[in-house]
């Protein structure tokens, strides 16, 4: 599968695509409104950054306690429920007079709910598209993310001026309701990918299995840390240029969209696996210009070019899937999503703290330099095909089928071969 037309003809891909698009549009509009609301009320770069990206911190708790639900809940019901929870929570944020602790309590609660959403969403994509279409499907979904963020930040800036931040939050809640309806009536009922009840113990067992592989650990760190540090840079757009923050966000999303199109559609598969580290360096290096507090046009150019590097997540997610047993695909992708979003929240807090004591431009440059440093440290092993040695292949076979030669080997909790989805391969906030 090499064309988007073929992909859109795949049964159920279109309603999944539309559901994700509506959710991203809702998150973009409501996130900008919330950042403006909190910054206007407090004048604090740290609190403004945390209001937009603070829910990400709750993803760490969700990844530790709730992530087993990603493979153990019916996908349609889970996606519908997550969208409805965000609809109600976003509407609650628009209540006049809501105190700051109440705002953060709601957004942290939504972060917990969202920790399951990524695994459900991309585990379902893993089932819907054929093996040779997964990276193309992920590319098209990411393109939608870019388009929705461009339109969402542009529309959000207008809505904040016309409707006020609280009115814009209500518009975001309405978009989440559209997403819930699309998931409920557009997707078919499917059984969970794995048996057993979701539990903290099941989540920890699967997390330990995924983290036990050194190649997977390296990929996870590469997906989480460089990306998160750059989202920390983005969390300072409002204090860096309050009147032009929507423009900066929109152009960053445009660069992200361009990168997804180039890598997902036009770069040959034999080259894609070699681009991970190079794209991560591209993601960070242009932000170093913020050290000199550039004028807004230069800042816009820098973030646009840098955001092409978000396409690194496409090739690294494919690498992660190549290293992961098929029956754990939803959990693996959920751990990626939760870890990435958690790191984004941590980085937003760190960037906001740096900005409090220096300046937004200086803090952005420091975060970018840290991203470059981490990428260089992880670069070995991120390029080329995901090879496994004999012992690693043996361990992968044991993960998939159990240790046939060892009667005492424990069963793989909660996962049966008969419930495994088709074997297929799989960023900012998606």
Automatic annotation (TrEMBL):
Its main location: membrane. The keyword Nucleotide-binding does not apply. It comes from the Bacteria. CDD domains: MFS_MefA_like (cd06173). GO terms for cellular component: plasma membrane. It is found in: Cell membrane. Residues 383-430 are annotated as: Disordered. Keywords: Cell membrane, Membrane, Transmembrane, Transmembrane helix. This is MFS transporter. It comes from Streptosporangium roseum (strain ATCC 12428 / DSM 43021 / JCM 3005 / KCTC 9067 / NCIMB 10171 / NRRL 2505 / NI 9100). The lineage of its organism: Bacteria, Bacillati, Actinomycetota, Actinomycetes, Streptosporangiales.
């Amino acid at each position: 599968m090499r064309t988007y037309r073929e992909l859109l003809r795949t049964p159920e891909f279109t309603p999944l695509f539309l559901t994700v698009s509506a959710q991203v549009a809702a998150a973009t509009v409501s996130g900008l409104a919330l950042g403006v609301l909190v910054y206007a009320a407090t004048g604090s770069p740290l609190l403004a950054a945390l209001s937009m990206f603070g829910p990400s911190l709750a993803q760490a708790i969700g990844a530790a306690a709730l992530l087993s639900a990603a493979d153990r809940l019916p996908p349609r019901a889970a996606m519908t429920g997550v969208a409805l929870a965000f609809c109600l929570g976003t509407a609650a944020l628009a209540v006049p007079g809501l105190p700051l602790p109440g705002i953060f309590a709601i957004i942290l609660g939504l972060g917990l709910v969202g920790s399951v959403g990524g695994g459900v969403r991309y585990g379902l994509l893993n089932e819907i598209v054929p093996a040779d279409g997964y990276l193309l499907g992920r590319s098209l979904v990411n393109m939608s993310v870019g388009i929705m963020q461009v339109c969402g930040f542009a529309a959000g800036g207008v809505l904040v001026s016309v409707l006020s931040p609280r009115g814009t939050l209500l518009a975001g809640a309405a978009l989440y309701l559209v997403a819930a309806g699309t998931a409920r009536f557009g997707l078919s009922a499917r059984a969970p990918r794995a048996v057993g009840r979701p539990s903290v113990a099941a989540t920890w067992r699967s997390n330990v299995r995924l983290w036990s592989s050194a190649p997977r650990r390296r990929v996870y760190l590469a997906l989480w840390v460089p990306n998160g540090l750059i989202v920390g840079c983005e969390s300072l757009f409002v204090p860096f240029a309050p009147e032009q923050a929507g423009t900066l966000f929109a152009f960053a999303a445009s660069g992200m969209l361009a990168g997804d199109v180039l890598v997902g559609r036009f770069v040959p598969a034999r080259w894609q696996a070699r681009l991970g580290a190079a794209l991560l360096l591209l993601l960070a290096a242009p932000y170093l210009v913020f050290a000199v507090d550039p004028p807004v046009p230069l800042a816009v150019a820098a973030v646009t070019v840098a955001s092409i590097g978000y396409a690194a997540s496409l090739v690294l997610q494919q690498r992660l899937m190549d290293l992961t047993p098929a029956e754990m695909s939803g959990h693996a992708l959920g751990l990626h999503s939760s870890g990435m979003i958690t790191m984004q929240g941590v980085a937003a807090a760190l960037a906001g703290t740096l900005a409090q004591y220096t300046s937004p431009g200086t803090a952005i440059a420091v975060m970018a330099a840290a991203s470059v440093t981490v990428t260089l440290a992880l670069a070995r092993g991120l390029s080329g095909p995901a090879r496994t040695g004999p012992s690693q292949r043996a361990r992968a076979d044991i993960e998939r089928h159990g240790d046939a030669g060892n009667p005492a080997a424990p069963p793989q909790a909660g996962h049966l071969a008969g419930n495994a989805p088709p074997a297929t391969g799989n960023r900012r906030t998606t």
